[in-house]
Design a protein that fits this description.
The radius of gyration is 29 Å and the shape is elongated. With 211 residues, the protein is an alpha+beta fold. The chain has 4 helices and 7 strands; from the N terminus they run βαββββαββαα. The protein has a 7-stranded antiparallel β-sheet with strand order 2-3-4-5-1-6-7, with helices on one face. It folds into 2 domains: 108 residues; 93 residues.
Amino acid sequence: MSYNLHLTHKGDWSDEVSPKKIPLEEFRKYVVKNPNLKIEKEGANSLALEYRRHPSDKDPYFYFAYKDGDIVTTSNHTDKHAFKMLLAISKKFKVPIQGDEGETIDESMLDQFQTYAEMETASKELDKEMKPVLTISWKESSRELSKDIKMINKSLIQYYFILLLCIVTVYGWLFIFHIVKRIKELRKTRNILTGKRDEFDDAVKRVEGCI
């Protein structure tokens, strides 16, 4: 889940009207002078920007944008080096930083941010912890779907038998349309459930192969 930071003078970053804007031309000059910043694309009143992270980070680029007088991060997560860059912009243009919930973000929160390498390590550790939990959940879902498929197969056998009776009896043809329709519905449902079960089974195989 992504979480963005907003550099804005608005009471809340989602407000439509801002009492003050970050001057576009001044900000452009600031970017051009900074060797770690690069303008990727320009619009009428917008800039798509790239920040080069610390050389030690495997993913060297962090993305953000200038839009109508505000600045917003567009990379999924803000690492410590990128946050320091945003703090510098905040101080230069005297503009507050807000989180997605409208909360104030400032320099006192620097220690709460991790470097990209730390974030990557934490993510791998979380994946390692979650894999057994997910595997159990997926196996249980697969078993429940198998039960549903088994019940559908039993129902299909019954409807096929009824269909056979309809064919060989005098007035059975009156019910054939309904029986055939129901058989098609059951087969369609079975195919959907079988596909979902196979997805869970494949996920379990992939995860168990990586543990």
